[in-house]
Amino acid sequence: MTAEDLFEILTRNISIDDLPEDLKFIATFCGMDVALSLIKHASGMNFTIPKNALNDLKKSYIVKHYDGRRARTLEICRTCDVTERYVRKVIKAHRDNKKTKN
Taking 70 as the threshold, does the pLDDT of residue 102 lie above it? Predict the structure, then answer.
């Protein structure tokens, strides 16, 4: 019997209630297939999902969509859940970064 066969036998009739708490959370929000895939391929690993995982994407979005108009800035703020001050800070940092590269 291979490890693959054993995994299939053990997980054939598994339910969310059979999983440890962290994996119950993952199975609830991502699906049982994802939880089982993590058990199969990432057992023993520790994961941390940073609160600011999307910060770089937010900054890119801001730079791409900013046009200087207040109405557009407010739309960006609502979309990215940030303040106008944060948008100005990102734009300033982007402009400063472009100046230093030239």
Answer: no
Q: Tokens for 15? A: 């339910």
pLDDT tens per residue, range 23-50: 999 999 999 999 999 999 999 999 898 9
Sorted by where each begins, the domain ranges of the chain are 3-42, 55-101
Q: What gap in Å lies between CA 32 and CA 71, rounded to an integer?
A: 43
Distance CA 33, CA 20 (A): 15
Instruction: Tokens for 63, please give them.
Output: 């730079």
pLDDT of residue 85: 97
- The DSSP-derived string for 3-38 is HHHHHHHHHTT--GGGS-HHHHHHHHHH-HHHHHHH
Determine what percent of the chain is predicted with pLDDT higher than 70: 99
Residue recorded with tokens 């739309």: 75
* Share of the chain residues as helix, strand and coil, in percent rounded to the nearest 5: 70, 0, 30
